[in-house]
Specification:
The complex is a heterotrimer of chains A (536), B (349) and C (362). By secondary structure, chain A is an alpha/beta fold. In chain A, the strands form six sheets. In chain A, strands 8-9-10-5-11-12 form a six-stranded mixed sheet, with helices on both faces. A six-stranded mixed sheet of chain A has the order 18-21-22-15-23-24, sandwiched between helices. A four-stranded antiparallel sheet of chain A has the order 4-3-6-7, covered by helices on one side. Chain B has 349 residues and is mostly helical. In chain B, strand 3 and strand 4 form a beta hairpin. Chain B is globular, with a radius of gyration of 22 Å. Chain C has 362 residues and is mainly alpha-helical. Chain C has one domain: ABC transporter involved in vitamin B12 uptake, BtuC (Orthogonal Bundle). In chain C, helix 2 packs across helix 8 and helix 3 packs across helix 10. Chain C starts with 32 loop residues before the first helix and ends with a helix. The chains are: A alpha/beta (536), B mainly alpha (349), C mainly alpha (362). Chains A and C meet through strand 4, helix 12, helix 13, strand 20 and helix 16 of A and helix 1, helix 8, helix 9 and helix 13 of C.
């Protein structure tokens, strides 16, 4: 689904005069060649399955030198599997990989590195106790006499690598505490020091501020101009159009489209990704708006969010929109009690909620479906029924002992109600697909009959069919009188389902729209602070 | 040229940042903190009981500290890579007995050969530890706990009810531990040099730095192609070998060795290492710091003795120090990370 | 409710084909519930076989092995260690460890002797000592949960600290004039049975702990915490409170063990109990509890206790030097952790060989 189109200063980037920025684009000493006729890297009909799950059916790609190539697709379309194959972490079941025309087998991350492929992940993993220079040269430090590490040479080389990227970092600084953006730069420097020719960036901008995104764009452009092939994976179509020349669209594990971006618009890409036209706003039924269930009053947590006040009534679906990093999940967690807050109060149905104690929130009828279902929402190795019943064991016990049969029935009921597809309720929940896992998390909370359901990114990483199921479920919940607070980065979802949209930016609530007032442009404008550029 | 925030400086093609300076400062404070505590202890104790700093007491301190410091060298290498070696006490005991017993079995055997025997025993134990940890993928806590038991049991069986007595050992051997230049035993000086070499190795050689990498982020170490198995294995072998040598030195120092030699040493060594600034989960810390930790613990023990406080307080104080050191280091790590992150963000926007 | 369809999705994260680094928890391959049950049953079956083998060994060494008085001896010699294995099981399953429990035993023993020497009435002493045990455990709990310190390091510290405090309290004094009403537990079996008092305590506590662990929400929460602390928090489980409770229970049991130990030996000495903690950890791991947390059964630990105690006893009957029985403990410990990884190891060697064949083909 088309993601939140957070528009950065696109005009600025497009008009950047690179030759003024970098005198002579160099990578590995060579001056940027013209885009070659032969692709540098080719993936041909690569397939990969994990047990019954076919993550990649027909992964194909051609990368040329000197281009920034976008790889787009919904969650689950197979992009990250392709990346892991390029990184040497997975080996394909079928298909071939060719580098410079020769067939290549990337049996391990080391092999991928030797082949000149570098992958920069969304959250790079550096060695926090080692210096930047040591991180760049890890495993292959520069040596001087007697096989001793030559720190001065490494220091100087790192400065050399960083200079054309236009970034200042102290090579002797330990990596601990570096911002994600800086960590990515260190990874890029490492890639360059390894003479990487293919640089894969997997959703690099998700955790970056606007300034850092701009900086990254400049770096990518430098790399491209110097002859590297950059594979840029992103959900943010405006970024794709800003810096990429060609695009490959994946859908359901297959390549759907590979062509230059020239002549394409975002809607075309979305259509290719989704396979159908972007659905216009759905009319949600008029639901009964009841009493105020959640009242957040001037919630503040230093450095994270400030002065957040809003209400959610029973029967309402309120969406909390905003860019990554605007503080939405943190507000949700603070309300639920996982995180603390420094000032303000939370009231549930008029009663003040004790802060910092999830059990108290649960007792007051609040449920939180967290952002990361694998790490926060589920205990992956625990059975499906164990997960579904986890928050309700109090009700399933007698004299302090859990009644197994009752637990099984309970889980089975809810699994049926939510149409969760499983083989055996006693299997670990990790055996379920993403959509069914999310439904298990939902079952866990819905089975408690909450009066307030907070749900963070309800349909992230879920297939299309399950997405609509989840949306329908939320609407039904609201009709039954539950108050729903939904955090979402997917604008179409927000527009389709929400009665009201609150927008956060950099820790503050900056806008509120009713269902009628809300539009993609207005939400995006508020989220990025460009409200003045658009008329209401 | 400095930036507007004054955080960056450049000179002679080299760059320093306030972040680096902050981190360096914190680490230096931590290291020198031990020395400061040490100094305070010595001064306070000496002012109460002036004979604390006579050459006899100082010699005791150095002698006790030397063996622990040596063990701390090997232990640091292991801990820095996010492992632990709890078997060093048992290895020391086994080596002490078997090597000293050589003098009884092979009369006139050169001292060097005895050291070789001790070293061999230690290396063999280290190989077993290292192999099980790396090949068997078993956590080192469990492995070295087990080998602590097994090696001690072997020791007991071999020793039977007997012991090696000092009178059966050649004077030249016993002199190794006792010979000194005034209050400072030659042995302490030698060990200090060895520790210096160890520190240099860990700082300036690739395999040394990779131990830190393994402890700092094991997953990234795998992806970076660091030969984790080899490095960790080597660390255990070295730790074992050092414990073996320490056993021989122990025998030279005490002269009388039975099956209880070295019992409990592993805890003292871990305490010394942690107090000396090595993070229990690896990634940071230095052997010099660990050596000072050993020196501090030995000093405290001797100070308590001199002050007439019963030796029964030793264990409790060591435990308190350990807890204090861990708490402090944790606090430092958390604040340092936050401070560094803040600086990073400030520069960024 | 049909079988899973392979719909496109962000696939489940299978075990990565790069091996996990040394010392880190193995990336867990998704096993079905039936497979996991099978693996647990396999472990417990192995223990039963080991027990049978031990019994055979024991009987072959001495015809007295299975007599009532020998069974009494078995329980007597290791009763305290067995009891301490129970809270240790819970703590390890919750992903932590408590190396200080045996030092709590020692300190309790010292306190018992000290207070008796100073004329306190025994019932009051017992209550007080148990209370102190809880306090010692709470101290551990606070350091681990409030300060967030790693339990391995913390409990090495408190282990040393408590042992040191035991030394301070009692010094070199040895107290041994305890009333025979209490020290009888070191001489006589529990009435109408062949079991020692400590063995009976163990049995009763084992049932309680087993019930809590496997059939109550609290017990479930331990597994959840051990597997995934964050998800447990998000489900409303009060992780900090739970862990603190675990450590307090551990302290209480350690104190109880200290009381039993002292009366059994009819002696209070400052170093009572030193060295026992490693046996406790060995027994728990031998029982199939994963050192990484989240996995294990109390029945397995129960079997491990029986195997361990019987084996010790059988060895002693062969005139094996008592101090050297540590070899057996250590050996059992190694076996119990190598065995599960053994299959893994073989698989890894095979896959590495096939992969190198693949890449050499290009």
């Amino acid at each position: 689904m088309g993601e939140l189109l957070d528009r950065c200063d696109t005009s600025g980037v497009a008009s950047l005069n690179l030759s003024a920025l970098v005198p002579e684009p160099r990578v590995n000493g060579a001056i940027a060649p013209e885009p070659a006729l032969e692709p540098l890297l080719v993936m041909e009909h690569v397939a990969k399955s994990f047990g019954v799950v076919r993550a990649l059916g027909d992964g194909s790609l051609e990368l040329y030198r000197g281009e920034t190539h976008a790889l787009v697709g919904e969650n689950g379309a197979g992009k990250s599997t392709m990346v892991k194959i390029l990184a040497g972490v997975y080996q394909p079941d079928e298909g071939t990989l060719r580098i410079d025309g020769h067939e290549a087998v990337l049996a391990s991350p080391a092999a991928a590195r030797d082949a000149g492929i570098a992958v920069i992940y969304q959250e790079p993993s550096l060695f926090p106790d080692l210096t930047v220079a040591e991180n760049v040269f890890i495993g292959r430090p520069l040596l001087r006499s007697g096989r001793r590490i030559d720190r001065r040479a490494m220091h100087r080389r790192v400065l050399e690598l960083l200079e054309p990227l236009g970034v200042r970092l102290d090579p002797e600084r330990i990596a601990r505490g570096l911002s994600i953006a800086d960590q990515q730069i260190v990874e890029i420097a490492k890639a360059l020091s390894l003479e990487a020719r293919v640089i894969v960036m997997d959703e690099p901008t998700a955790a970056l501020s606007a300034y850092e995104v701009q900086r990254l764009f400049r770096v990518v452009e430098t790399l491209r101009a110097a002859g590297a092939a950059v594979l840029f994976i992103s959900h943010r179509l405006n970024e794709v159009f800003a810096i990429c020349q060609r695009v490959t669209v994946m859908r359901d594990g297959q390549r759907v489209l590979s062509r230059p971006l020239e002549g394409l618009g975002p809607d075309d890409l979305v259509r290719a990704m989704v396979g159908r036209d972007v659905v216009e706003r759905e009319q949600t039924g008029e639901s009964q708006r009841g009493d105020v269930v959640l009242k957040a009053e001037r919630l503040t947590r230093e450095g994270v969010f400030t002065d957040i006040s809003f209400e959610v009534r029973s029967g309402e679906i309120v969406a909390l929109a905003g860019l990554v990093g605007s503080g939405r999940s943190e507000v949700a967690r603070a309300i639920f009690g996982i995180d603390r807050y420094d000032a303000g109060a939370v009231h549930i149905a008029g009663a003040r909620l004790k802060k910092g104690v999830p059990a108290a929130a649960m007792a007051a009828g609040v449920g939180l479906v967290p952002e990361d279902r694998r790490l926060q929402g589920l205990v992956m190795e625990l059975s499906i029924e164990g997960n579904i019943a986890m928050a309700s064991l109090g009700r399933l016990q007698r004299f302090g002992f859990v009644r197994r049969a009752a637990e099984h029935r309970f889980a089975s009921d809810w699994a049926t109600r939510l149409r969760i597809r499983y083989l055996r309720l006693t299997s670990p929940v990790s055996t379920l697909s993403g959509g069914n896992q999310q439904k298990s998390v939902l079952a866990k909370w819905l089975s408690r009959r909450p009066r307030l359901l907070i749900i963070d990114e309800p349909t992230r990483g879920i297939d299309v069919a399950t997405k609509s199921e989840v949306h329908r479920l939320l609407v039904e919940l609201a009709q039954e009188g539950v108050a729903v607070l939904m955090i979402s980065s997917e604008l179409p979802e927000v527009l389709r389902v929400a009665d009201r949209v609150l927008v956060m930016r950099e820790g503050r609530l900056v806008a509120e729209f009713s269902h009628q007032e809300a539009s993609e442009e207005s939400i995006v404008a508020a989220a990025t602070g460009q409200a003045e550029m658009f008329t209401s | 040229m400095t930036t507007a925030l004054g955080s960056f400086e450049e000179a002679n093609g080299e760059v320093t940042s306030s972040s680096r300076r902050l981190a360096d400062l914190v680490f230096k404070i931590r290291e020198f903190g031990i020395i400061a505590v040490l100094a305070i202890f010595v001064i306070v104790t000496a002012s109460i009981q002036s004979r604390f700093i006579d050459s006899q007491n100082i010699k005791f301190i150095f002698t006790n500290a030397t063996i622990y410091a040596l063990l701390a060298l090997g232990e640091t290498m292991v801990v820095v890579a996010r492992n632990i070696d709890l078997s060093v006490g048992s290895v020391l005991g086994l080596s002490a007995y078997l090597s000293a017993d050589m003098f009884n079995r092979a009369h006139g055997i050169p001292i060097v050969a005895v050291f070789a025997v001790g070293l061999a025993i230690g290396l063999a134990c280290g190989v077993v530890n290292g192999a099980i940890v790396t090949l068997g993928r078993v956590p080192s806590l469990v492995v070295t706990l087990a080998t602590l038991y097994v090696i001690r049991g072997l020791d007991i069986i071999l020793v039977g009810g007997g012991m090696v007595v000092a009178s059966s050992l050649p004077n030249s051997f016993l002199a190794i531990a006792s010979a000194s230049a005034g209050p400072v035993p030659y042995l302490a000086m030698v060990v200090a040099v060895v520790i210096g070499l160890g520190a240099y190795y860990l700082r300036s050689f690739r395999s040394g730095r990779e131990l830190y990498a393994i402890g700092s982020n094991p997953d990234a170490a795998v992806l970076a192609g660091i030969p984790i198995g080899k490095r960790v294995f080597t660390a255990f072998v070295v730790s074992g070998g050092i414990a073996g040598i320490a056993g021989v030195l122990w025998a030279a120092n005490y002269g009388t060795i039975d099956s209880t030699a070295g019992t409990g040493y592993e805890l003292q060594v871990v305490a010394a290492v942690v107090v000396g600034g090595v993070a229990i989960f690896g990634g940071s810390g230095t052997v010099v710091g660990a050596a000072f930790g050993a020196l501090l613990l030995a000093t405290i023990t001797q100070a308590l003795y001199v002050l007439g406080i019963s030796s029964f307080w030793d264990g409790a104080i060591a435990g308190l120090l350990l807890i204090a050191a861990i708490s402090m280091d944790h606090g430092i790590a958390v604040s340092l990370t936050a401070a560094l992150r803040k600086r990073s963000l400030q520069r960024g926007t | 409710m049909g079988p899973e369809t392979a719909v496109s999705q962000s696939g489940p994260e299978p075990a990565a084909s790069t091996p996990p680094p040394v010392g880190s928890p193995p990336r867990l391959v998704a096993l079905s519930g039936a497979e996991r049950l099978r693996s647990l049953v396999r472990w417990e079956s192995a223990l039963v076989i080991a027990l049978a083998a031990t019994v055979v060994f024991g009987v072959s060494v001495s015809s007295q092995f299975l007599t009532g008085s020998n069974i009494f001896n078995i329980g007597l010699a290791n009763g305290e260690v067995a009891i301490m294995a129970l809270p240790m099981t819970l703590i390890i399953i919750a992903g932590e460890i408590d190396l200080s429990i045996a030092s709590t035993l020692g300190l309790s023993s010292s306190l018992l002797g000290y207070l008796w020497l100073h004329g306190w009435p025994m019932p009051a002493i017992i209550v007080f000592v148990l209370f102190i045990g809880v306090v010692l455990g709470a101290f551990n709990g606070i350091l681990v949960t409030r300060l967030g310190l790693p339990s391995l390091a913390v409990t090495i510290g408190t282990m040393t600290l408590y042992a040191g405090m035991a030394e301070i309290v009692l010094g070199s004094t040895i107290v041994s004039n305890f009333p025979t009403g209490y020290t009888t537990i070191g001489v006589n079996a529990f009435p109408h049975t062949d079991l020692s008092y400590s063995a009976v305590f163990f049995l009763v506590l084992a049932i309680i702990f087993g019930a809590v662990m496997h059939a109550t929400p609290f017990g479930r929460s331990l597994f959840a915490i051990g597997w995934n602390k964050e998800a447990a928090q998000y489900a409303g489980i009060r992780v900090k409170r739970t862990k603190t409770i675990l450590y307090m229970v551990s302290g209480l049991i350690g104190a109880l063990a200290g009381i039993l130990y002292t009366f059994r030996l009819s002696t209070a000495e400052f170093d009572n109990g030193s060295g026992l903690v490693l046996s406790v950890v060995a027994i728990v791991l031998l029982g199939g509890v994963s050192i990484f947390g989240g996995k294990g059964t109390l029945f397995g630990v129960f079997l491990a206790v029986v195997v361990f105690c019987s084996l010790q006893n059988a060895l002693l009957l062969t005139n094996f030097p008592e101090d050297a029985t540590g070899i057996v403990t250590g050996g059992l410990l190694l076996v119990s952790v190598l065995l599960p990884n053994g299959g893994d190891l073989i698989r890894r060697i095979r896959s590495r060989r096939s992969r190198s064949r693949l890449s050499s083909g290009s």
